[in-house]
Amino acid sequence: MARLKLAVLISGRGSNLQSLIDACADPEFPAEIVSVISNVPDVQGLERAAMADISAAVIDHRNFDSREAFEATLNAALDDSGADLVCLAGFMRLLTAEFVNRWRDRLINIHPSLLPDYKGLHVHERVIAAGEAFSGCTVHYVRPDMDSGPIITQAKVPVEPGDTADTLAARVLAQEHIIYPEAVRQIAEA
Ligand code: GAR
Questions:
Q1: Which of 37, 44, 47, 107 meets the CB 3.0–4.6 Å disulfide criterion with 142?
Q2: What does the pLDDT look like over 120-140, one tens digit per residue?
Q3: Nearest CA to ligand 1 atom 6
Q4: pLDDT tens-digit profile of 138-170?
């Protein structure tokens, strides 16, 4: 059976990209990465793509006058790549409703909280400040409202006494690296 073609959008470190690269390295995994696109130049995720011999591009949003112009270029690159599914992996740019609707049910995101709780930025700081006993991560289909949309899979982790945002982030990230490939597999096999 043909493998699901993934485009992965990043803005930085790319450790979730790496988890997808590693999963796709298994010929039995039902997906492959056809393109990596970063909106930020010179990030670690681009090095990861190069190491894995995956075609990668920078589309720097700062070079565009509007979100729409940026997204038109992004859409053209995604169309050219032949991607079936677009995976946001630490892509820190808000997308317009037009873009999101164009890719409806073909666009997924990973977020470091148990959505619908703790949408947005600085999640781990807020989870700790609120005294939560648990946090986690979520892979979901993207809808126009930020960090919303049907949930594909989640993992829960405990918040330990003495946790800082960094220690909690690391515990959550380890689970992100497990559930993102799982979510892709689930979609590919559906
Ligand atoms: C990850 O923790 C991801 O869940 C988060 O950014 C980090 C990116 O790390 N995404 C968001 O907060 C999106 N709202 P990575 O570049 O190493 O994958």
A1: 107
A2: 999 999 999 999 999 999 999
A3: 90
A4: 999 999 999 999 999 999 999 999 999 999 999
Q: Whose CA is nearest to atom 10 of ligand 1?
A: 90
Domains of the chain: 4-189 (3.40.50.170)
Task: List all residues whose CB is within 6 A of at least one atom of ligand 1.
Answer: 12-16, 89-90, 110-112, 147, 173, 176
CB 131 within 8 A of CB 161: no
CA distance 161 to 73: 46
Tell me, in angstroms, the distance from the centre of ligand 1 to residue 89's CA: 6
